[in-house]
Structure formats: C-alpha cells, structure tokens
Write a structure and sequence with these properties.
The complex is a heterodimer. Chain A has helices spanning about 5-20, 35, 65-75, 90-130, 130-135, and strands at about 45-50, 60-65. By secondary structure, chain A is mainly alpha-helical. A two-stranded antiparallel sheet of chain A has the order 1-2. Chain A starts with a helix and ends with a helix. The model of chain A has no long low-confidence stretch (mean pLDDT about 80). In chain B, helix 13 packs across helix 20, helix 17 packs parallel to helix 20 (about 585-605) and helix 18 (about 505-515) packs antiparallel against helix 19 (about 520-540). Classes of the chains: A mainly alpha, B alpha+beta.
C-alpha cells in the first residue's frame, strides 16, 4: 500500500494533462505516460524529418527515445542539418528526400518488426488454438 | 376614486459597453464539447456544531477515479477542525480512536485542505462534489472577504494559510481563494479565484485539443453541487435522502445518530453520507449524459439551463444575436408590457369549500395556441403595425371568440393604450410599505401604457364590455426559417425536429405517449415523464424573459433606458443584461396570454354566479360544494357576497376549455382545465370536499376535514416562509415548517383545540 495514494494519483493526472489524450509515439507505439515523460523537457517531441533547416514544417510526433534514434540516423546519413545563408532550394530538396528516405527506412524497419510479431502470433494461434480460423 | 397612486413599469437597458464581453460573444457549441471531463472526483462532507455558528467539527472524504461512469476509490479519510483537540477533547479522542481502528488517514483541517483539497481539486482538477456544497466549503474557511465582479454580493473564502516568522497565520497568496455567490437556497456560483504564480501545468486549458499553457488561462475549478444538479433535472428541491431515493441509489443516507457529539455511530453516519453522495454523483451524471447537450454539469444551475442547452443543440439562434438590429424601442415597450403570472386572493381568512382546478401546462399550451415556435425558429421577426386591425378586433371580440383556437395566433401583439378605468395589471406600492407588487385593478393613467394584446382583450372581457382606447398596435410576424436547425433526441429517447415539429406541443404530447411505451422500463418511463415536464415548463417562458442584473460598481457607465418614454441615458452602477434567449416581446405575450386564460376562467365563474378564493398563475380555487349549498355568508375583497357553485357547474366550466385543447386529442383528450388530484380520495378515486384558507396572494392552504372536524392539510403554500431558518429541532420527525405553520393557522381559524408541542 502506497504511503500517499492521493499524491501518486495526482502526479499521474498532471502528467496525462501535459501529454493530452491518446498520447502515442508514431514510431514505436509507446503509450505508457511513464515512458513518455522526461523531466524538464517536452514529453512527446516533434522530429523534423528533413531537418529544421530544410523543411521546418515537416514533422512527426515521436517519443524521446525514438527522437534520439532518428536524429542520430540523420547525422549518420550525413544529412546536412546546418544553417547556411547560401543554401539553395535544390540543396534543401536533397535534404528533404534524404531525410524522408532515412525516416521511411526506420519506419519500414519498425513496421517489419510489427509484421514479424504478427506472423509469430498467427503461428502460435495455429499451434495452440487450431480452431481460431473458423471462429474469426 | 380620484386617488393618485404611482405605478412602476420595467424598461430595457443597454450599457455603453458590454458588462461581460466574454458572454456577449456567440459561444461555439464545439468549444463547449471539446471540454475534457475530469476523470477524478473528490467527495467530501463536513459536520458542524449545532449552534448558530455551525463551526466545523469533523468530516470525511473520498477521492476516486471516475472511469466509464463508475467510481474507483483511491483514498478515503477523515479530517477535523484545527482546534478540535482543545475545543472537544473527548470528541477528538473518539475520532482518533475511530481512525486508528478503521485504518483511515485523519488530518487536521489545515492538512486536509493542503494535502487533499489543494492537490485533488486544483492540481488534479477533480470534480469537487458535495450535497449543498457551499455549506461544506464555508466550514473549511479560515477567513473570508467580499466577492467582487461576478461574485459581488457573495464571498471569497480563504482556505489556505501559512505561519509567518512572527507566528501569525497569514493567507497563502500562492493558493486561490474559493469564490461563492448564492443565487438561492438550491444554487450558487462557485469557483477558484486567480492565484499568484501558477505553474505552466496549471495553465494548460481544459479544452481537449489545447496542450500549451496559456498565460491568460486561469483554472476555475470543477465544483459540482449535486443539490443543484438534482434540482435542474427535476425542478424540485431535494434533500440528499430524497435525491438518493428518486435516482435509485441503493446505498443511501443513514439516519443521523445524533448531531454534535462525536461518536463511532456519528462518524459512520458522516462516512455513509459521503458514500451516498458519491453514489448519487454516478447516478446523476449517468442521467445527465442521456441528454445530447453540450453543457458542463458544473454550469447547470436550473432546468432552464438544460432547456437553453437543448435550444442550442437544435441550432435555434439566440433572438437578439439573430437580429442585432431589432428596434430597442420595441424591446423597451415590451418590457413595459411585461408582467409575471397573475396571483390574487379574493377571499381572505375564511374557511371556504372549494374545487381546485388548474390548466394543463399553461405556458406550453398558450405557446402552442399562439404559434410561438414559428417566431422562435424564424429567420427574423418583423414588427408590423396593425393598429386598425386591432381596433376593429377589440370592438367586436366576445367571450366566444376567445374559445376559438384560431383567435390566439393574433395575440403575438403589443399594444399602446390610454387606460381609462380598464382592468389591467399594474405594479404599485399598494401597501405603502416599499414593496412593489402587481395587482389587477381598474386603471386610469395620464400616460399611455404598453400591454400585450391578450391583457387588453382580458380587460374588455372583465370590464363590462368597455373597449380600451388603442393608440398603436405592433404585431410580431415570423419571416422565413433559420438555417442550421437540426433534430435532437429529447432525453436520448424522443426525436424532435425543430423545422417540422412544434416544440411545445410535441413535449406535452410525448409526455403522454410515454405512458404507453412498453419498450421502456417503468423507472425509465417515470424518468422521461419527469424530464419532459421539466423541459416543457422551463423552456416555454422564463428563458425568454431572462434578464440578469449586473453590478458594475466602480465601472459605472452610461446606460440607455428604453421603455415608456423616448430613450434616455443615465450614468449607473448597474445594468440589466438580457439572457441568452431573452426576447421581451415574446415573454410579454406569453404571460399576457396566460392571464387571458385565467380571465376567461374568472369570467365563466362569474357568469355562472360563483366566487373564487384565489388564483395563482394557472390555477384557481373556486368556491363550490357538491350541490351548491352555501356554507356561510361573507364578502370577497371586491365587496361581492360569497357565491357557491355546485360541482356539476364547475364541471361545465371545465368542459368549456376543451375547445382550446391544441394537442393531439388521442394523446391529450378532454379539457385543458383539469381538476387537481387533491379533489379526489386517493383510495376510492371519488370526489371529496376540499377546503381552502388563504391569507394573501400565493399564501394559502388546501385541506380536507376529518370526521371530527380537524383539518388534514393537502397543499400548504411555502411562499413567504423561505427566508426563515427552520426553528424546528433536527431531532423532530416532522421538520416541514410550512406544513406546521399552516396546520396552526388553519386550526386556529377553525378553533380546533389541540395540545401544542
């Protein structure tokens, strides 16, 4: 039994208020507010898919962990994230395509993982609940 | 005659700037719907000393999660007055022992408001739920000040304080105050005030799609008084016990184990009150959510709040928003013509045999007869001069004409007349005691006055056929139909289409239809019947007459006054703001039509050679015995001798009103004038003799006599007793003050000997 059930509950309510309803990371699907929180920073973050300098409006909402991974991948892929006054729109477009390619690759990897998990579930259903196909 | 008596008329006022700009902006239903309902609930209840001060002794609380309509307890606990150990050492010891035995947290008040109320009500934004919540909040206060602005006339309570370095306790300015302004015994505005330095999380608005803190945002709290919500849903005043029974709370209120002395039984009683309140919360919210309306339960103050929310849900535009250029002069003239329901006492302080009759849903009925719904849903309302037409109508109108339904639509008309001894309502200080009351008298004035056409027709019918002198007549004509009207489901069960259906008649007819609905359980039928009755009565008149007085205090401004004379401007500290659906011309015509209906009844009683003891808006106590035998001599307030009708003569009068039944006769058969239930023996269903003793308008009692002549009260009016604190000790079984006062009055009048308690 917790020593302060009211305090514990109030803390969760306030965290949920900050996150809003249906808070979820678009990449990994994490919904647990506890995993979405990071003290002193925003809770869910907006990842600039092509880098802020290339397209400030092109963003997706991701959790802190995924944001770190996505940003690291952009740097690995030598996406030019620096601001340059003489940067032309063709160069920014290159950055957008490169950023999107990287993002889709990570998304594909993530979706592939979900697909693998689904396939595993189907296999286990066939093994343990052979009648499930007739009932579904 | 020849006496001069000042009379007063109402006026329409408009400030040079809106007193509450936020309220004058059209509110978007979407903005209200987006509100995120709290998912936590704090229910608490305080016990107090029985003396006049009613100082806090102890209380209990339950903090719960609210998910899918049911509560899940997070913590239950007790609290006590900060000084209880000194003030009542035995009680304190009993409380400590109880808390230890039951393993409940026990906090001093100071810790309770800090650890529980502050964190739950403000930080977690839980519903703060109580039954008669202002009473409990005041018990927790350590100081109070006067309310300001919207809360002028109310109080601001200091709940949170701290100990300064010199040992004094000072108000904690980093916590809000709680603001309370009572509207009446059942309703109050309650909110948090602003506080110093709120943190960003507390500045995130409640709306679902807003995440970012708004610097101007101030969280006002979610205070929900279940007494108010129960009243709004039923139009009846409830105790916790009666509300629990009505809404089917199984684990309801316990009988008090004796107030004042803290004991295990008393703490059990208090905890059960909190449990019952929590259970009632679940039931009331479930009931409220049946209504497809976008209104926070904490913003519901009366049945009218729900009626207005339904009009919004149907897409009915607010009359003065829809037509911002509607002539202000006509609004002023309509306010001059506006009077409430007619109430009158004709035979005072006499024991009179009566038949008590009332009209079926008076205001919905006259609205249906006049076709008011077309006006309410019109694209615009056009004022049309019909002076010649009305002069002609008044010359030829007869009592028979008024019993023709086709006569009534033309009553949506205001007329300016030159009263010369005409029987009309007038507001005057009749008793010369500073109280302005409305009376129906022969009236002669130097200045022309505005009345509803219905009042002027009534004046002709009651005034020996003399035709009042008409100066001007303006008819309200509906033009087109509003766009955006949409059907709603009343109570989640009955579809009404505002474009095709007359709202008023549909509600009355559907209420009757509910009786035959086998698809609903009996309790659902009763719930729906009650709701439709409440909706019919709250949505048919008051909301069109709603005027809210605003105190401007230091923000005095130039107020333009429209009414009897040409408009003029005065610098004032108050302004009357029209309510959301306020439309004075319609309100004046509705109440005028109700007075005409009563005038028709008076005329029929008079023509039949009868008298009446009193009339009250939609009812009349007609002097009558089974065979018309007089019981006593005397005279009414006009000097006319008492005259008695037989029951069959009264029945014939009732039948006359069948012609004015505007409803589907299969659903609502017969007359719109009905015999009230008290005229019948509930066991046998046979007619029984009812008696009445009245002392003034709205102050009367209806009763039967038992075989030895002792009065058995059936309906004592409570008017005039509401300002008194009930002096009957809480230990007495019958604490109904009105009942006991009237029992005494009637017994004294009848000289029935009885031992007094």
């Amino acid at each position: 039994m917790s020593g302060d059930p009211v305090g514990n509950d109030v803390r969760k309510v306030r965290r949920a208020r900050r996150l809003g309803p249906d808070a979820v990371c678009v990449r990994c699907g994490v919904r647990d507010p506890v995993q979405l929180i990071r003290a002193g920073r925003s809770l869910l973050e907006e990842h600039h898919v092509a880098g802020y300098v290339n397209d400030p409006a092109l963003t997706v909402v991701v959790c802190r962990n995924c944001h770190a991974e996505l940003s690291e991948a952009q740097r690995d892929d030598a996406l030019d994230l620096r601001f340059r006054a003489d940067k032309m729109s063709l160069e920014r477009l290159e950055g957008v395509l490169r950023g999107l390619a990287e993002f889709f690759a990570l998304l594909a990897e993530s979706l592939g993982g979900w697909a693998d998990e689904l396939a595993g579930t189907v296999t286990r259903l066939d093994r343990d609940f052979s009648g499930w196909r007739e009932n579904s | 005659m020849g006496e001069f008596l000042p009379i007063a008329v109402r006026a329409y006022t408009e400030g040079s700037r809106p007193a509450r700009p936020a309220k004058t902006r059209p509110r978007s239903a979407r903005a209200v719907r987006r509100w995120r309902a709290p998912e936590r609930v704090l229910v608490f209840d305080c016990e107090s000393e029985t003396g006049a001060g009613q100082t806090l002794t102890f209380g209990s609380y339950r903090y719960c999660r609210f998910d899918e309509g049911s509560l899940e307890l997070v913590e239950e606990g007790l609290f006590h007055a900060d000084d209880l150990a000194v003030r009542d050492p035995d009680g304190f010891a009993a409380l400590v022992s109880y808390a230890r035995e039951k393993e409940l947290p026990l906090h001093p008040r100071r810790v309770f408001v800090d650890r529980v109320l502050w964190r739950c009500a403000y930080r977690a934004r839980a519903w703060v739920v109580g039954f008669n919540l202002p009473f409990d909040l005041v018990r927790l206060a350590v100081a109070f000040g006067e309310g300001r602005g919207r809360y002028a006339g109310g109080h601001s309570l200091v709940l949170w304080d701290y100990e300064a370095s010199d040992g004094r306790r000072l108000e904690d300015r980093y916590r809000p105050r709680v603001l309370i302004k009572s509207i009446d015994s059942k309703r109050a505005f309650i909110s948090f005030s602003q506080r110093r330095d709120p943190d960003p999380n507390d500045q995130i608005p409640d709306e679902e799609d807003l995440r970012q803190p708004g610097e101007a945002y101030c969280f006002r709290g979610h205070f929900l008084d279940l007494r108010t919500l129960a009243f709004a849903l039923t139009n009846e005043s409830h105790s916790l016990d009666s509300a629990c029974r009505l809404f089917g709370v199984e684990d309801g209120k316990l009988e008090a184990a004796g107030h004042g002395v803290i004991s295990d039984a008393y703490v059990d009683y208090n905890r059960q009150d909190v449990r019952a309140t929590a259970n009632l919360f679940e039931k009331l919210i479930a009931e409220y959510q049946r209504h497809p309306i976008a209104l926070r339960p904490t913003k519901v103050y009366s049945p009218a709040s729900i009626a207005k929310a339904y009009l919004r849900a149907m897409g009915v535009a607010k009359p003065l928003d829809r037509q911002p250029d509607f002539p202000r002069e006509l609004l002023g003239q309509a306010m001059v013509a506006f009077y409430g329901g007619r109430t009158e006492c004709r035979i005072r302080r006499a024991h009179m045999p009566v038949v008590y009759v009332d009209f079926l849903s008076m205001y919905p009925t006259v609205n249906t007869l006049m076709g008011s719904w077309q006006l309410i849903t019109a694209e615009k309302v056009e004022p049309v001069d019909v002076t010649d037409n009305v002069r002609e109508l008044l010359e030829r109108v007869t009592l028979e004409d008024c019993f023709t339904p086709g006569f009534w639509p033309q009553l949506l008309t205001l007329v300016q007349i030159d009263p010369v001894g005409d029987i009309l309502p007038a507001r005057a200080d009749y008793g010369e005691n500073g109280q302005w009351q409305i009376g129906l008298n022969p009236l002669t004035t130097d200045t022309p006055l505005w009345y509803s056409l219905a009042d002027v027709v009534a004046a002709k019918l009651l005034g020996e056929g003399r035709t009042p002198r008409i100066i001007r007549a303006i008819r309200l004509v509906a033009v087109g139909e509003q766009r955006g009207l949409r059907p709603v489901q009343l109570g989640g069960e009955i579809v009404i289409d505002p474009s095709a259906d007359d709202f008023f008649s549909t509600v009355i007819e559907q209420r009757r239809r509910v009786n035959g609905r086998v698809d609903l359980a009996p309790v659902q039928r009763e719930r729906l019947r009650t709701f439709l009755k409440v909706l019919a009565n709250s949505g048919c008149y008051g909301i069109f007459a709603e005027i809210n007085r605003q105190e401007l205090r230091s923000r005095r401004q130039d107020i333009t006054i429209y009414g009897l004379t040409d408009p003029f401007t005065q610098r004032l500290g108050t302004v009357e703001e029209p309510g959301e659906y306020s439309f004075p011309p319609l309100a004046a015509c509705i109440t005028g039509a109700a007075r005409l209906m009563l005038a028709l009844l008076e005329r029929l009683v008079r023509d039949a050679g009868g008298s009446y003891v009193f009339c009250d808006t939609d009812s009349m106590a007609i002097v009558a015995t089974p065979d018309g035998t007089p019981t006593q001599d005397g005279a009414d307030t006009t000097g006319a001798p008492f005259r008695v009708l037989s029951h069959s003569e009264v029945d014939r009068i009732i039948d006359r009103f069948t012609a004015l039944n505007p409803y589907d006769r299969e659903l609502v058969p017969g007359s719109i004038l009905e015999l009230e239930e008290w005229n019948f023996d509930p066991q046998t269903g046979e007619r029984r003799q009812l008696y009445c003793h009245a002392v003034s308008a709205k102050r009367y009692a209806l009763y039967n006599l038992d075989p030895d002549g002792t009065p058995i009260l059936r309906k004592p009016s409570e008017h005039g007793l509401g300002h008194l604190m009930n002096p009957i000790d809480t230990g007495f079984e019958n604490r109904d003050l009105a009942w006991q006062v009237w029992q005494e009055i009637v017994e004294d009048a009848l000289s029935v000997g009885r031992a007094r308690p």
